[in-house]
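Hey,
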Amino acid sequence: MWSEGSWMLPNLCMAAVTLAIQSLGLPILEPVPLTAPPNSARLGPAVAVSGDTVVVGSYSEPSACAGVNCIPSTVGTLLSSGAAYVFVRQGNGWALQAYLKASNPGQDDIFGSAIAISGDTLVIGAEREASAATGINGNQLDNSAPQAGAAYVFVRVGGTWSQQAYLKASNTLTFTNFGRAVAISGDTIVIGAHMERSNATGVNGNQLDTSMLQSGAAYVFERTGSVWAQTAYLKASNTNAGDNFGDSVAVDADTIVVGARLEDSAATGVNGNGADNSLTDSGAAYVFKRQGSVWSGPDYLKPSNPSDTSYFGDEVGISRDSIVIGSPFHPGAGGGFAGAAYVFVRSTGTWSEQGYLTPAISDGYDRFGHSVSITGDRVLVGTPFPGGTASGIDGIPISGAARFSGAAYEFNRVGQSWVQMHYIKSTSNQTNGRFGSHVRTAEDTGVVLAVGEEAATYAGAVHVIDFDTRTSAFCSGDGTATACPCGNVGLAGHGCATSLSAGGAELRGAGVARLSFDSLQLVASGLGGGAGIFIQGSSTQAGGAGLPFGDGLLCVAGGITRLAIQFPTGGSARYPAQALVDVPLSVLGAVSAGTTRFYQFWHRDNAPFCTPSTFNLTNGLTVPWGI
């Protein structure tokens, strides 16, 4: 079923937007393409997502107008000056909220070549911008430094965007490409300049020795109130010419990851010998940590199986204590450039490799890992070059047709292992569509760019994927709600501690809670082997704080429904356990559209713990049910 509509911003004559909405009837994932405004240049190469906002770059966009929601038809053209488009979710659809241009557009600046968003703050790179300014809000009009590069910060108040800052390097030089990569987390921005040429190493070294061509750098900016300042200058621990440190960057809270895809060492693992340059362009990644206001590091990450020209570090992503790193030219088991992605995790301050991700099927030339993103226990990997006749979700990846149509893969972490969950193709599956050119995730939403998709009114498309329901935990046993019965405090978002799990058992949701297509699955983990019961309530106990009950907290109230008895396997239980056998939750719980229900798992404790009851409960889970 397809439906179409169009939106036009006031006075935005050139940039009317067409939006196509797909309802595929496929499990868990529902791609929704956002199409580019007609008469504009091709979308890409970057996308970003935060909550219900998606931002798409168009670095070849040719308008000469400047600022937010300017009018392209009133000015001339500046080829490849670039633009970005902000879309927001409205009900089950998406609408254009803003059309962004640089405050100083210039020909071939490619504004929009890199994008990152965190809440209501957006940073956009223009790696070929030419001003000789340094620092914050300098002179934008002195174009005497070709391809020095710049980045622009925009903020949203209500539904209105405005430019807040114009960022330049502290050591602006020609052809350093500041803005090649950008990342943001809260009030911290990281900008990569992969062609920067100082000989410095580590944090805040000497920027003035320019003897190491194309070694690369990254710059950290932090905001106080509404004022931005550069707070750190980052270099590799083993700076070498041509390494391209800063080609990719990522940040989450107090941790920064910087990729150097052309680094040459043969080291493996973490903090190995970075001076052995015997594997050309094998690639590396570097991790910096902030304590207080001081940045330190880096830790030096290499894969367990490095190889020549594998470009490890071509893309990086971070979510709390987990990092994903793309290596799109890694040869894989069959040679060629099949590609791979690697997950590293941090425990007590130490990093180690946890996962080596490859597609279930590859023809050896897919460049899996061309783009990567991680949020929590989910990794999304883009691979824009495979063909195949499949379209949509979980089709059969038969090659030999639709060459370079592209694909994306979703992996989930189960315990300490990573499992491929879904194989994702564009529903149009066009030859040269290159679906998977860029991917990003946030919360339960993913975006996948297909730079080559063509239609009558656009070039390029972004597919928005709702991975699973926007569930939320409540009634936690971590002390933020009602106190656990005997001080048996658990982790945030979990229940009270049990005899088997000091962190307490956890209940979470996976799938889509919609009456039109219900794939919601309740997943309880941290359990013993005894029987338990999934329960549904129409309201909450004590306003969501819960009441002491057995060894835990009873969170749900109102009309309570016993959904299913389950015997956990490997410490976890699910309902529905078998999608084609078990009744969907919406049917079993007799829910209606637009209502919210509350879920919990009651389970046996493995042994008497803190009361004679020997039973406990997970946290509560809030589920809003849609149409």
